[in-house]
Write a structure and sequence with these properties.
By secondary structure, the chain is α/β, with parallel strands linked by helices. 33% of the residues lie in helices and 23% in strands. It has 13 helices and 17 strands. The chain is globular. The relative contact order is 0.15.
């Protein structure tokens, strides 16, 4: 199940509601969602891929993913965060294939080491198939990032297909800077990559236990999916908006982890495959710089199609200005992004706040720019 319903506001002005970052080619020629399917192809047939998105993006995603069955691209009638989207897959499969392992994958990540990615996911599939277990992937942190969730590692468990496994102690969503520094310094925390593996039965039962009001709504939608398309569309549109707006982390992972390491049966595998979630412009700068972490802060990244890029006494900048000669003089750590109708200027440090621009544009009635 690929989650592709986000609007990508932190990548404004390139990302817009009808062309969000998951359908943009931010890293190479293939779009983010195409790259997601590309790296999953060795692990599952395209006919086993499902995508949940929205009606602004569904046609474009279908166009970009011709190998995925059209009926597997679902448009949410209303945005309801990740818990209903993840759990819907479980309820759709539970009746017919309860032991099937479902992988949840965001649509906007990049992975450089595809071989290692496949090895870790295969090990996670084997672990998730071995019982009532939830498998999460944890990325070794390279900085005290406040925009990510963190996983505290517990005791080491038996390896899966040669891949190290730890039990999970707890999850912490987006800590403040001081806490993030403590987490990284401890050496016992990893970033939550938002990639999860579990059997259909495990996830469906977890929803029943921890979000009992959500379960019957998803069961109604799943039952309708086994009838006609017209009936499914009607029930989906009527019932899905009634679902709680909540992330899978808050709905299942945090309450289940409260059972303790032994009782929760949540396991973490290492996301050590050169991962980046490209959550904002500074993350894209880090990824595109393509240099060791200690040199990222001074690297300039020029993303344009003119070969002439001039830098004088300037470091750590990201500039996207297609069709323009780019010249930087005496500036550092800037993000400058130009499109045909907008210009963004911020710092790498404040790039997480770009989404606030979209909110201001909405308040100003400039829907044409969002």
């Amino acid at each position: 199940m690929i989650l592709a319903g986000g609007s990508g506001t932190r990548f404004w002005p390139r990302s817009r509601k009808a062309r969000a970052k998951q359908v943009l080619a931010l890293d190479g020629e293939r779009t983010m969602i195409q790259q997601t399917v590309d790296r999953l192809t060795p692990l599952a047939k395209p006919t086993d891929v499902w995508v949940i998105t929205n009606d602004l993006l569904d046609d474009l995603i279908a166009e970009q993913l011709p190998e995925v069955p059209g009926e597997h691209i679902l448009s949410e009638p209303a945005a309801r965060n990740t818990a209903p989207a993840c759990a819907l897959a479980a309820f759709l499969l539970e009746k017919s294939e309860p032991e099937t392992v479902i992988g949840i994958f965001p649509s906007d990540h990049v992975v450089k080491n595809l071989q290692r990615f496949a090895e870790v996911i295969r090990a996670g599939i084997a672990l998730a198939a071995s019982g009532d277990k939830i498998v999460v992937l944890g990325v070794p942190p390279t900085r005290a990032e406040t925009g990510y969730g963190y996983i505290e590692l517990g005791a080491e468990a038996e390896a899966s297909q040669g891949i190290a496994v730890h039990r999970v102690k707890r999850f912490t969503e987006k800590p403040n800077a001081e806490l993030a520094e403590q987490f990284v310094a401890s050496g016992n925390y990893v970033w939550n990559a938002g990639i999860f593996l579990w059997s259909a039965r495990t996830l469906a039962n977890a929803i029943r236990e921890h979000r009992p009001a959500l379960a019957p709504l998803l069961e109604r939608i799943a039952e309708a999916h086994r009838t006609s398309k017209a009936e499914f569309d009607r029930v989906f549109a009527e019932v899905y908006p009634l679902c709680e707006n909540i992330s899978i982390d808050y709905a299942v992972l945090e309450p289940r982890s409260a059972k303790g390491e032994a009782g929760a049966e949540i396991y973490c595998l290492p996301g050590d495959f050169a991962w980046n979630d490209l959550g904002c412009w500074s993350a894209l700068h880090e990824h595109a710089a393509g240099c060791p972490p200690e040199k990222v802060s001074i690297a300039n990244v020029f993303d344009g199609d003119d070969p002439l890029c001039i830098s004088i006494d300037s470091t750590g900048n990201y500039v996207h200005a297609p069709g323009k000669v780019i010249a930087l003089v005496g500036v550092s750590n800037l993000v400058v992004v130009q499109t045909k109708d907008a210009l963004l200027i911020t710092t790498r440090e404040r790039s997480q706040d770009v989404g606030k621009v979209v909110a201001e544009l909405k308040n100003a009635g400039r829907d044409d720019l969002i």
